[in-house]
Amino acid sequence: MTDRNSSGIQAYPSREVHLGALEIARALPIRRRRMVGPWCFFDRFGPVSFGEERPMDVPPHPHIGLQTVTWLLEGEVRHDDSLGYEAVVRPGGVNVMTAGRGIAHAERTPVENSGRLSGVQLWAALPDADRETDPGFESLAETPAVVQAGGIIRVFSGTLAGATSPARHYSAILGADVTVHPGAALSFDLQPEYEHALFLLEGDCAFEHQPVEAGMLVDLGRDRTSASFTSRGGGRVLLIGGPPFPEEILMWWNFVARTREEIAGARANWESHRHFGEVMAYPGPRLEAPDLGRLAPPNPVS
Ligand code: MN
User: What is the distance in A from the centroid of ligand 1 to the CA of 104?
Assistant: First the structure.
């Protein structure tokens, strides 16, 4: 499964993690694949049905050096941050938070909810030139969709099939949700200078006639000029990509940095209530940073 086959495709299993009561498949980073373009983190959560309890409740925590992108298939997630932004993201829309030099946020299932939750959260590393930018937040209620006979392509980051997301990013990037109708085929052009990867979101889907296995990050590599999909019963895949990230990043907890000193500094700032601000809209205590002793060596260049 981990050997690149003749079509240049390599699949890596995601890791199962828990975020409170929520079961998550973590597709990035994994040991053998740290990044896909600028994307350095990719969690798939749900689908889950729930009643009175609320499956997502992540107390205030800090970020530096990245953007978070929240994309839902079902349900809703409420975002609150230390700049005072409050926004509920729903299917078809996208929340993009730019941490820049520092922000804190909380994410939770809102009181008014549909009883369903299914989605992804991705992080994009900021290039060195933009790492110290002002923090910011953008909530788009709608993203562009391209409707073809065989399915629908929704673009939440970057450009694909002639559609461009208005979400602001700091380097070339692609994030799209591709729906293939039952018994249908769908194809579109890719940027050959990008590396790309797929993750099955729902149903069944084949890429160039090879089934996309559930729970796997399917690495398509570089130099592809097109992508073609088919589905028997209907399916949905997430497609991510971008030019190979040219910088070595260091990722620890919710921080993307370059050096251990930066990580230690960001952690110390959070622990002493400096720099990041407080998430005033969240009613409970915030998350404490883990012990620095678990700081791993820098990630390899992707
Ligand atoms: Mn976060």
Answer: 8
